Amino acid sequence: MALFVQKFGGSSVADAECMQRVAQRVYDTRAEGHEVVVVLSAMGKTTDNLIQLARQVNAQPDEREMDMLLSTGEQVSVSILAMALHAMGAEAVSLTGPQAGISTDTAHTKAKITDIQPQRIREQLDRGRIVIVCGFQGLTPTHDIATLGRGGSDTTAVALAAALQADRCQIFTDVDGVYTADPRQVPQASKLDCIAYDEMLELASLGAKVLQSRSVEFAKKYHVELEVLTSFDRRPGTIVKDEVTEMEHIIVRGVAADKNQAKVTIQHVPDRPGVAARLFKELAAANVNVDMIVQNVSEKGQTDISFTVPLDEVNRTRTAVDGLIEEIGAAGAFYDVDIAKISIVGVGMRSHSGVAFRMFDALSAHKINVEMISTSEIKISVVIRSAYADQAVQVLHAAFELDKVNEPVS
Ligand code: ADP
Ligand code: ASP
Ligand code: MG
């Protein structure tokens, strides 16, 4: 008997028919003699609709109240699935995140899981029940409900798998695995049999929303082997696991695009020690996630500093930066929301040279201008005009022959 954590995303539980399909899948796993903990997302577009509803009554809703609202979506799903399983004669019980023993910090709408006390889940499993837990939520130290950021049910599933020492964590979604690029955007994308944690982490944090990046961090830290697969049929999916040497044979595993980024440029910043520190201290205090940072060559003792931030943090950035312009003696700040970040990722980059050249050459052949560059050992990201994002992904996918990754090496 093994312990399975099975997570089903929004599109897998979109309506009653989907719920019944999920119930059958869970039922079958239990019938094979395994223990099952199920983690569910809200049905279909429920979370989006709830956000819309909130914005109709308040342009900037309070984050604690937002969490009260958004956490209801998952509660609908878990109770409905429990009822569907009962109708099939299975024993099942639904639990909210707090009931399941999931604690978070107080960062409403993007809280982090701080602890899991899984005794209640264990007790229910011991009674032979299927346990169905609300994804995306937990309880703060002040006993408020908090949500884990968009896509957070993935993280609930992996964190539960780690806490329960599950044998397998399966993430069921609407595609049959992790692809070399978003298969909805690049029809030629290839499905990967396996991918290293580090590669998946980069892809997820650089725009591939198939897994929430924090779920991959958890999986890597606690050695939870993940399988990403479809809930619509019974094909095997993609395994996310520790890196093995053979993985380095492929230079680029995937391409990702992030269109939810903005570029901030601070003009004519005095070029003297302490100015950058002052600026980024203020941004850190405002809880802004700064990414690519570029400082131009100094001219007449002045320089321009550019950096990227997530689109939904532009207002916070503006408040922090605008209050500093005079103090640091800069000329002004410019906010550009028409950008996209395009990245190539692969552990094979460590042992192959010329990857950056191939990337820039392919983009330039299509007259796509690169505005910013950042690299790590296993990724290269560029900022370009957002209008070219889709084309750039296609171009890079072709340049690195990612449509052929499943062909046997000759
Ligand atoms: P769920 O509701 O099941 O959590 P998501 O919509 O969050 O599903 O994630 C699945 C989607 O991720 C797919 O429909 C696909 O469009 C998108 N996606 C982006 N990049 C990739 C990739 N590299 N491989 C597979 N899917 C991807
Ligand atoms: N329902 C939440 C969302 O749509 C969490 C999740 O689906 O993972 O982001
Ligand atoms: Mg998701």
Short description:
The protein is α/β, with parallel strands linked by helices and 410 residues long.
CATH architecture of the largest domain: 3-Layer(aba) Sandwich
End-to-end separation in angstroms reads 42 Å
Number of strands: 18
Instruction: Give the H and E element order.
Output: EHEHHEEEHEEEHEEHHEEEHEEHHEHEEH
Please tell me the total number of domains: 2
Average pLDDT, rounded to a whole number, is: 95
Explain what you see.
The protein is α/β, with parallel strands linked by helices. It contains twelve helices and 18 strands. It has two domains: 3-174, Carbamate kinase (3-Layer(aba) Sandwich); 255-404, VC0802-like, CATH 3.30.2130. The strands form four sheets. An eight-stranded mixed sheet has the order 3-6-2-1-9-11-12-10, with helices on both faces.
Note the main attributes of this structure.
single chain; Carbamate kinase; VC0802-like; 2 domains; 8-stranded mixed beta sheet; 6-stranded antiparallel beta sheet; globular; binds adenosine-5'-diphosphate; binds aspartic acid; binds magnesium ion
